[in-house]
Design brief:
Helices cover about 70% and strands about 0% of the residues. It is mainly α. The chain has 2 domains: about 1-85, no CATH class; about 120-315, Orthogonal Bundle (MetI-like fold). α10 (about 235-245) crosses α12. The protein starts with a helix and ends in an 11-residue tail after the last helix. Mean pLDDT is about 80; it is low at about 45-65.
Length: about 350
Amino acid sequence: MGAYILRRLLLMIPTIFGIMAISFAIVQFAPGGPVEQVIADLTSQGSGDRLSGGTDMTQETGGDGAYRGARGLDPEFIAKLEKQFGFDKPPLERFLTMMWDYMRFDFGESFFRNTSVVDLIAQKMPVSISLGVWILIFSYAISIPLGIKKAVKDGSAFDVWTSGIIIVGYAVPSFLFGILLIVLFAGGSFLDWFPLRGIVSDNFDSLSWWQKPLDYMWHMTLPLITLLLSAFATTTLLTKNSFIDEIKKQYVTTARAKGLTESQVLYRHVFRNAMLIIIAGFPGAFISAFFTGSLLIEYIFSLDGLGRLGYDSIVRRDYPIVFATLFIFSLMGLVVSLVSDLIYTWVDPRIDFERRDV
């Protein structure tokens, strides 16, 4: 197993290098970089759209290589802008410098926010954690018992009706369901029971200790319901299918022949084998809950999380944030994939990845 882990760790280096290289190359051909963003502000072209969060107004280069939106500006000023953003160097040199900094976990500062990338991620993470962790807890708490119940009652009316509800819930876009909840319960056209903005009230600090968690859950109710609609569908059906496969095996028949009750057969013998794939996928779901954001949900409910940060950074061409988050999440994805494989071998010792090619 040690050799397998070492090979996987070594493979992470070219993998993440390739991810960053392809992304960096694509960005080089994308119009409207940070220099053009500043020029657009200075020349009052597209600044209204960008400041309001609308479509970015890009400035293409003319035939002479100069920025079209920069005509009339001092060329020395343009050169200073390029130097400030690091675009006075060749692309290859910029890429290698960026990767060297990232290898030392130095992610630099945002182009437009005057704050380090790490601090920005730390500021936005509480919102994404609030959404992700609660969704993870509730979805697993609902999915596993429901999946087991559906497996035991496979083909019954309960199984058919719950499957229909799950499929419909999974098919309906979460942002549409969120808008419906706002219209019904957040002062849209009917009831005004829940707030529309943030994860806590403006007077949160002045609330008593018992009012704070209530205020927090009051703000989180509608976003959580919106995300839960589709969050537990996959895990529920996966749990059901895993249990059905195990229930049909010979050892279950043998256990029943020994006089064990259905509950004993289900939870003493079937549970561990059926939950293998669910347990192995838990690290990925757990990490995703901490470090990913739901862009549309954050916009609908005015939540300032990682999803919104990533979108705004792409629109504004804030490359330090874009590339740093890509590097961090790619690295974490590779590590979590390795951890999931190791959990497979822990749950089921019959699995031996070391005998297989990576």
